Amino acid sequence: MFWHLFYYRLKILITNLPLIFWTMVFPILLGLLFMAAFSNLDQANLLNQSAIGIVSEEDTSEFETMLNSLQTDEGELFTVSHLSKQEATTQLTNDKIIGYYEFDKADIQLFINQNHIEQTVLSEFLSQYLQIQDKVTVLLNAGVNPEEIHAQLVANEDFITESKERSFSQSNFYFFALLGMTILNGFIWGLGNTNDQQANQSANGIRICLSPRNKFVVSFANLLASFVLFYLQSLVVLGVFHFIYRVDFGNNWGWIFLLIAIGSLNALSFGTLMGNFSSKISFDQKITIGTTLTMAMSFLAGMMGTESIKYWISQNLPLLGKINLVNLISEGFYQLYYYQSLQPFYHNLLWLAGFTVVFFLSNVYFERRVSYDHL
């Protein structure tokens, strides 16, 4: 009986052309607009030599030496000038420098007023420098020979050379966010399932409630049919982005397929939960609420040119980024492409899987409690 229900639900979903358009064709067309808008974005954001400041009353020659080691084919990446706190603040406000480091005893702080690739390099450099500084301190306290420590630091140059093999692409970032939004739009499929299962929403729901079939079996068959079709549809979008739009997703294709699978199941469960939780409002109102939530999450994930907001959230409100489903999915693509270590991706995937389990169990709870006064 289960496979009979699954087969016929699949046939019904395949014939729902408006739904397929908005969850597959529309993202592909939107990606085409992205291609037109961002075709020269990476060339426009190539690293040029930029001016930065250092605010310090102590010797910073060691820090500057490491900073000057950051170079492009044209030469040093940054020109450094020593400034007072007031001068640095004024020049940063007037965009004469892109940022400045302030040394206060053992603490080093970076001040920026924008979040472009140059500022990201400054932030990453400071993070790496502080990590190296901590390691050196620990090794010296442990009695390690300073010459051996120096040899280890020189060996880090190999890492710099290898990291150049994958260049930063800002257009990729927007496509990752677009794919995250596309996957979460699968909530519409989950809403459609609940609409066809609830007796106060549709005639199909009345027939299902009057039938002798187990309601959980019907619900699971609908969910599985939606998942299979939506997952394949998401792979089509991925294929168009990669093979036609030439978006590079890296080489971790196994993890990419798993991320899309969990993201698709998450979106379907999220939509089903919305339908179960708000069973007394109309289907169109649910679509409006779900679309509004999806667009808000896409905005906070940086898809609308709001990557600076995404960066601010990651620095100041990291939990907000962890409960943003679009951000979790798009960040997964970002981590698989740019990060050498997959540890952050595993952590991100656990959050996404955790939400999926919570949504699924919540749906089971709501559907077991459904009852009607009369049909």
From TrEMBL:
Q: Where does this one sit in the cell?
A: Membrane
Q: Which UniProt keywords apply?
A: Membrane, Transmembrane, Transmembrane helix
Ranges for domain ABC-2 type transporter transmembrane come to: 19-361
Q: Which residues cross the membrane?
A: 20-38, 173-192, 220-241, 253-275, 287-305, 349-366
Query: What's its membrane topology?
Result: Multi-pass membrane protein
- The yes or no answer to whether the keyword Transmembrane helix is present is yes
Q: Which Pfam families match?
A: ABC2_membrane_3
**Listed name of the protein:** ABC-2 type transport system permease
Q: Which organism is it from?
A: Candidatus Enterococcus lowellii
Organism ancestry: Bacteria, Bacillati, Bacillota, Bacilli, Lactobacillales
